[in-house]
What we know:
By secondary structure, the protein is of the alpha/beta class. The chain has three domains: 13-85 and 251-283, Rossmann fold (3-Layer(aba) Sandwich), CATH 3.40.50.720; 96-248, 2-Layer Sandwich (Dihydrodipicolinate Reductase, domain 2), CATH 3.30.360; 295-377, Alpha-Beta Plaits. It has twelve helices and 14 strands. The protein has helices at 13-18, 35-44, 54-70, 87-94, 109-121, 125-134, 143-146, 149-163, 182-190, 252-272, 312-322, 352-363; strands spanning 24-27, 48-51, 75-76, 100-106, 173-174, 193-204, 207-218, 230-237, 242-248, 289-290, 297-307, 327-332, 340-351, 373-377. Strands 4, 5, 6, 7, 8, 9, 10, 11, 12, 13 and 14 form an eleven-stranded mixed sheet that branches. Strands 1-2-3 form a three-stranded parallel sheet, with helices on both faces. Helix 2 runs parallel beside helix 3 (54-70).
Amino acid sequence: KTYLPKGSFTTSAEEVIGDPQIDIVVELIGGIHPAKEYITTALAKGKHVVTANKALLAEEGRELFALAQDRSKNISFEASVGAGIPVVKALREGLVANRFDSIFGILNGTSNYILTQMSKHGWGFPEALKSAQKNGYAEKDPTLDIEGKDSAHKLVLLTYLAFGRLVDLEDVFVEGISRVSGLDVLYARELGFEIKLMAVAKKDKDNLELRVEPVFIPAGHLLASVDGVFNAIYVNSDKAGSLLFYGPGAGQLSAASAVVSDLVDLAQDVRAGLFRPNLKIVPDNSVSQLRKIQEVEGRYYIRFMAVDRPGVLARISGVLARFDISIASVTQKERSKQEVVPIVMVIHETKYKFLHSALEVISRLDVIKEKPVCIRIEQI
């Protein structure tokens, strides 16, 4: 049932964009094209835009935001990150007095559902993915979600809101969860951690690191309890302190809530004859450069699948020592009838480039039968 006047509905986007009586255009078709062309035309014709299109804004936002500011119009995008979770407005307005040290986000419901099922039921990755697809939480081709690109799109927008820098998607290191196995989830729990696909923007002095990757987080941390298709954004700020935004990260009604919020904000301004620019984010001038992933330091969990014979551990340890990588602990289950067994190590802090180089050498050893799995132990 609708209360709109007769003739309000049309299947022609051009008819809406070209109507001089329409002040705000809502784009919810997704993808890059033709969404970009519709938004560009709407802005050129002097209309505000509401969108949930994180991929478009992350990849083409620099051009679109510049056009909007040139035309004194707004692009509102609350639904693009976390659907109905009001994190965009909170960062842009509610926390405007703050500088941010870090943002940690569980931003993809599909990946989080898969990891949750693996943790709770002891499933492997393929089984958990099938469950996600069966229940409508994963696409037939889930690559965008499970390989981290969807989270990277959202991280680009959160970085813009928090640090005033609209980075390129290529500036974000991205690694998905498809190589995480049931063994890794089991060992994580034994060590007191949960595995989450985490989008991270972290400031260290004048450097900003941006990455999306599976990480170990302490089981007692708030983010560790974010299960299923839910999303969460954990923000560390200098004045308001640590804040957690949590809720359904997808769904028609959740996204609609955010879209209507943007629409009402803009409609009130239009009605009052006001223009409050929402794209002029104050940059954090304490950040002078983006830190490449090769220079990022961290502790890591590593799982090797190795031939069960004497001397294997010594060979692995010898390679790590050549790259000045120190081992904190080693777990190797008692010998079994299987020829290939897992060897699990936790290492002390090292730069990613040193670990990556060491693992390349270890992978070529004749006693290593699978590519090692390496997961960062996140410091939150």
